[in-house]
Amino acid sequence: MKIGKAHCPELDIDLTIYQLRDWHFDEDEYNDINADNLTFLCQDINCRAELSDVNATNPKPKQTPHFRTLTNETHSCGIEDDDKLTIPGTDEPKRGHDKAYKENEFPDEFLLKRKPSKRRGTPEDKPEQPIIIENPNSSKPKNDSDSRQAPNRTSDLEHIVECFLGHQDNPETLKHKYLTIDKQRLSYRRFFVPVGYYDGREELRIYYGQLKTINVYGEDKDQRFVLKFKAWPTLEDKKHPLSIYLSKNTINSYRKRKLFKTQMLNFLEHPEQDVLCFFFGYPELVDKNYKNKEGTYKRLEATVTNLDHLVLCFN
Q: Where are the alpha helices (H) located in 130-218, listed in sequence order?
């Protein structure tokens, strides 16, 4: 069985797979947490079936991260087994496969500013939970069944992206699931916009598209990257190339900088792979003319100053 949330005895908390990934790759606030050294159980205190994590430590997962019941374990808590088609011991299907795990716990708000941690240098304390904030207005009693409800707000864009990717084949679901970002409330379907459909309006959206190339400048701590998309948006009947410039300050101040650089360098070594890039913001025209064989053109550039607002998905 595939599950999105589990209990961790070592940390003595229930956590989502996205919290686990966030803490595992964090080099500043949670550098004492290594997901490979943790164990996971069913959240139900009367069940506690053993679970394993899938892709908690993978820097470039091709399957949606989740927890999975161990082959020889059974649940006594009555959780319906929705994974009957998966054969134990086989490889996890990739995103888009009819047997692949789909993230069904849709956050309804994306927090642009992440809650800071209070536990620097205190590995004996329970981790603060900056990623998931439960709905404070809920009138339901807190029990084990309630703990499996969808989170209300998250600062983890990866969680939101996986919800979108898992349900692209069902536009009605995306149409009826709503997301709030910075006081703007739209359906998931409207918030996610392919970069090729950018129309020049300064609307904050989650734009996405396949990367064509990544250019790297500098070395080690001075590295900076330019991400270039395959699709070119059309403005005023002209195609404009779109890129994202990431400064060394943006990269070096990111708490998961090693993860990010690993993803960048992997794409540079294997440019033939399909990589989808998601970012929150909007592109802008660079006030400068460029030339090619067909004449002059202008570039579009998206500014990303917080790498928590950018997600790469490897297919």
A: 157-166, 171-176, 188-191
